[in-house]
Amino acid sequence: SSRPNTPTPSTTTINMSSMLAAFQKLSPSKQLSFQTSMNAALTPLAPTSVIPSAPTSVTPNANASSSLIFDITKERSTPISHSIRDVYGIHTYILELARNNQHIPFSLLTSKTTRRLFLESSTLKFITFYSSHRGSAPTKCHLLDISQFTAESDITIPEWHEAWARYLRFLQEHASPEIHTHWANHYNILREHPDFTDNWTAILTFDIEQRAS
Description:
The chain has 213 residues and is mostly helical.
């Protein structure tokens, strides 16, 4: 005869009568212990208590659909640096030239010359000048001799940008808003020329003529 199939755990039946008979033969203390263990085995595990987290507030990004590459929130913070302009500013010798209606060459507004004006003033040369304001009697004064500095027509492109930065700050403090805006626009037009470097000599010449007129 063929060997009977071994019942799988899923098809095995529990003989409740035999279990009950065996249970009744146990002492009261063992019955209690058996009942406790069976209750623990048959009781389903309680679901793990999960504390709901606070909903994350998502701020809509107005630029989400834009093509921005850089975001200020991702930039590394850097210490504030102090440039040469914060240390020296505009020297009073330049202010005196302006007060006496003299052209201010940009060679006087470069970083190199600014340091010289403030740190080596005792070595500088001056000229005697007689100023007259609105028909008043000429007044004798001493102005900075600009011939001791590099010619304005020989400054480099970086020096030109340095000078313009100082000149615009100078106008912001000592000129009307209209004048400041006029020269700021003038500078922006020149520096944004599509062939700036190739036309540097012509641009500088034009710039000097406009400011000296």
